[in-house]
Amino acid sequence: MLGLFAGCQGVDEETPDDHAAATTETSTSSLSTVDKSGWELGREPAPVHLGPGAEVSFPLEDGAELQAFAESVRTEPGDIPRLRYELNGAVSELPLKHTHVSVQIHGPVAEVEVQQTYENPLERALETVYVFPLPENSAVDAMRMVIGERVIEAIIQRREEARQTYEDAKAAGHTAALLEQERPNIFTQSVANIAPKSTIQISTHYVQDLTYDAGEYEFVFPMVVGPRFIGGESLGTASGTGLAPDTTTVPDASRITPPILGQGMRSGHDVSIEIRADVGLTPRNIQVPTHEVAVETKALGFELMLAEAESIPNRDFVLRYEVDSKEVTTSMMTYRDPGRSKVGTFNLLIQPPDLDVDALVGDREFIFVVDVSGSMSGRPLAMCKDAMRQVLQSIRPSDTFNILKFSGGTSILFESSRPASQTNIKDASTYIDDMRAGGGTHLGDAVEKALGAEPAGRNRYVFFMTDAQIGEGAQILAKSVTLLERFQESGHKARVFGVGVGSSVNHALIEDMAKVGDGLAVYATQREEPARAVNRIFEKVDHPVMEQLSIDWNGLEVEETYPRVMPDLFVSRPLMLHGQYSEPGEANITIRGRVDGQRVDIPLHVSFPEVDEDAQVVGTLWARAKIDALEIDEAYGMGSKAVEITEIGLAHSLVTPYTSFVAVDRTQVVGDGKPTLVVQPEEAPESEMTGLLGSGMAAQGFDSTTAGNTAGNYGLGMRGAGRGGGGSSAGFGYGGSNSGGFGVGRFGTTGHGGGGSGGGNYGSAAASLGDKSTGRPKLKPSQPEVTGSLDKRIVRKVLNLHAAKLVACAKGAPGKLVVSWVIDGDGGVSTANIKSATLPDSTVQTCVLGVVKSMRFPVPKGGGAVTVNYPFVFDGGVSDDGQSARAATSFGTNSPTATVGTANLLLALFLAQRNDLLGCLAVAPTTSREEVALSWTVDDGGYPSKPTFKADAETTKTLDCVGERMTYWDFSPFAGGTLSVKLVPM
Question: How would you class 767 by CB atoms within 10 Å of its CB: exposed for 0-12, middle for 13-18, buried for 19 or more?
Fold first, then answer.
């Protein structure tokens, strides 16, 4: 096996001395890691040998970066290394020590309290940021902060107001906590000014509907935010503390990509779970396929505790159970408190009728879409393969089928769907066997091919088998809606089924795709066989469903029911309907639908009471259901629903994308208002190969007294470099290391190289925005005029990405061009023209217009076109002798800072694409023990040539594969450069 890597060079640079590869030795009794904190060109870091149960420490000097990776390690059971950090010579544990989960289950509803305990071992105030998951259908309705004997209840505020309350409290030295929602299933907990040598507890309360299917209830508590693939072009800044930069398609990517530890490592964070279930009937067949538990069964319920004291919290907790009843009947829960509201709320569980018939299911087309991206490596992809083999045995010969696989690209088995004959199934089996994991998660292309193919006179059933770990969920959902509507215009039905596979699945996206696709979502954990999930889907596909559902309320005053349009009712899968009633009363209502074309009625007697204060959660769940409906409206292109969602969040004290909980303890002042910041890392999801070919991600940590809050991550962002280095003021960099690989300048603009921990306001080795060095042309910062629904800050960030190209257009000449352009509804530039110019050279004007027209912007939130007017002011650059200088467009200096920055930026890029490399080793393994040097060039657009190298025949096959995959990588930070790396045997 080959490991990374030796060195790199830029244009006009001297080739640095070679590095030895970072290695990790695997042993059952000891582990060996490499301390990369002293990384320098030409010097090999010495390995640090640790024994069982050892602590892995990384230096974090005050005001500097946390410079290391958590290595992939394996230990004996119970000998789990814990990550620590070092500040001013003192080794400390990470702040989050324990999470306790207390669950109360009442019928189909769960109430959950999550208590997080943070400790500050330092002699100064501490701030911590922790990105964590909750269920996608959770309604977070309370938060409190406990400091000693003091209990501070959080208040709900608009998101920007809550953030300001938090920042003001932090600056004043008060302890504060802030809870924000990033996605329906991703939240950020920030805690400022934890007093030295003290402990704080943050409790969060939420409620949710349980999943019920075929007599079985399911409760899931997610434990880790899985690494998400981030597409789009980097915007050059970060709004959060995560690994990936914000991009044009995921503008909050830095808020949903927390640092990830290496495989087998832990952050020192333990989890305990207690569940008390009152199910009203005798429970049976209680199963937890993911963890060891202790269970005590009672007459009408059960109690359960997590038994694994030293379990790494790196996989979702899944509980399933049944109740002793032959039939679950349609039922209702209500809540009304006249003192608080004039209306009451209810939830109605609609159980489908028991239809023991083999009805005709019609002509069917099955399309199976399999995720083969890097995050599916190992067991998840193996599970998908097993599931596919079973699927092929389940479909009828008269059915047609096709298989797609996707990662960085998409491939399809047949040009069009074929009958399920033995010959075609044999071809499919070969196609499945050849699947290998590696690359990014370009789900959008797969959605386009699966749902956009022309209808063939059949109903289409599309199965997505994936962990759905991507950041572009909203775009995927919107595309699915458009394609489904287009398909149904043909007179046939298309259904979408989500099969979530793995230990850390993005439930929110899978559930939403199934929802808009009138299908179902099922899940298979890492420790289960996929047959269960697949069989459940086919039980429903092969049976009739109840369609065209409606309810005759028989005079009852019912309003605002959700979902607004009731979906089809599958056999054994009930529907939960949430609604309001304005007047008390009772009546016999009728639930109507059609099964196989025949009308079916379900009678039910319901009562809406004047007062019912026992089940307040019913009102909370109604509000959550309304928010879900509004978010689906946004996916259907019905405009922003931010105002309505905000109003619901404030009225019902719910955390939403636009409302947050904030708690402040104003009874005492802690510190000077400038606490040390430590970002809590996530454990790597079980069986994801986060630590191979280098390392997983260590915790970020930095001293917020430094202007700009520099950070030091070597980056696992899928677009190459991760955060690090960084200049002050704007304070973010990409590439990491002691010197900073991709510094951000004083005006929020980008300069390659340079940076420096807590230091340089400008990049020192590039000819783009932010270059301070004399004798180099610069594009002076200007303010854009923007008309339309696009933030001008986003416009400037996109301009920053193209700074080097724009500077090159001017050819060193000073002057000003005022350019006007129109951004259309899909983010592209439709027209661009020069409004005024003091640069008369027509070739310069043509070049600038060409760069502008090539830009891509985020899709305007409000829809419609956006007009931008921007003055491009080129100063031409003045050298020491007063002469105008030409732009340099590469890492073209011999300064040690630029060299180190380049090396580490390139290291980050290779580590980010490690799954591509692993895929090549799987397809073309090599046993070579020789070192191999690869060299390649990068054009001005950031596109690499295929690398050149000399190697034996076996290794050549591996490196041919690597070279082919490298052509898809983003080398834009090295535009115009020549690079080389050396692969060494491991």
Answer: buried
Q: How many other CB atoms sit within 10 Å of the CB of residue 28?
A: 11
Which positions ≥6 away from 220 have C-beta within 8 Å?
135, 211, 316, 317, 318, 319, 507, 523
**Looking at residue 555, what is its pLDDT?**
92
Any idea what the Cα angle at residue 757 is, between residues 753 and 759, rounded to 5°? 85
The answer to whether position 835 is within a domain reads: yes
Query: Nearest-CA neighbor of 779 among 866, 889, 855, 883?
Result: 889
Residues whose CB is less than 8 angstroms from the CB of residue 602 and which lie 6 or more positions away in sequence, other chains included? 330, 350, 351, 353, 590, 591, 592, 593
Q: Residue 464 sits in which domain range?
A: 364-541
Q: What are the average pLDDT values for consecutive 10-residue runs of the chain, which has 986 residues?
A: 33 33 27 26 27 32 29 30 48 73 91 93 88 90 94 96 96 96 91 93 94 80 77 79 80 79 58 90 86 88 79 79 67 87 89 52 80 79 78 77 86 87 80 79 82 81 84 77 80 82 81 84 70 66 73 93 83 81 92 82 90 88 92 77 94 95 95 86 59 28 25 26 27 27 25 29 27 51 79 75 77 85 84 86 86 81 79 65 33 30 54 58 68 79 77 82 71 72 64
Residues 608 and 478 in one domain: no
Question: What is the rounded distance in angstroms from the CA atom of residue 695 to the CA atom of residue 684?
Answer: 11
What are the CB-based long-range contacts (under 8 Å, 24+) for 42-45? Answer: 42/16, 42/17, 42/18, 43/17, 44/19, 44/20
Q: Are strands 459-466 and 109-120 parallel, antiparallel or unpaired?
A: unpaired
Per DSSP, helices labelled H in 733-814 are 792-801, 803-810
505 and 616 assigned to the same domain? no
Residue whose C-alpha is closest to residue 263's, from 516, 24, 14:
24
Half-sphere exposure of 284 (CA within 13 A, CB side): 7
Helices (H), 812-859: 842-853
What is the predicted pLDDT for the residue at 985? Answer: 57
Within this chain, do residues 391 and 458 fall inside the same structural domain, yes or no? yes
Residues paired with residue 247 on neighbouring β-strands, in sequence order = 234
Task: Give the domain-ending residue among 498, 513, 541.
Answer: 541
List the beta strands (DSSP E) in 68-174.
82-87, 90-93, 96-106, 109-120, 126-133, 139-147, 150-153, 155-158
- Do 555 and 530 belong to one domain? no
Q: What's residue 34's pLDDT? A: 27
Tokens 């679950």 label which residue? 328
Which of 481, 512, 541 is the endpoint of a domain?
A: 541
Same domain, 566 and 481: no
Residue 425 pLDDT: 83
Which structure tokens are listed for 148? 């000693």
The answer to pTM > 0.70 is no
Residue 447 belongs to what H/E stretch? helix 443-452
Tell me, what DSSP letter sits at residue 828? B
pLDDT at 620: 94
- What is the CATH number for 631? 2.60.40
What per-residue confidence (pLDDT) applies to 112?
95
Q: Give the domain CATH number at 792.
A: 3.30.2420
* Number of structural domains the chain divides into: 3
Domain-located, residue 634? yes
**CATH number of residue 422's parent domain:** 3.40.50.410
Helix 473-488 to helix 507-516 angle (10° resolution) is: 20
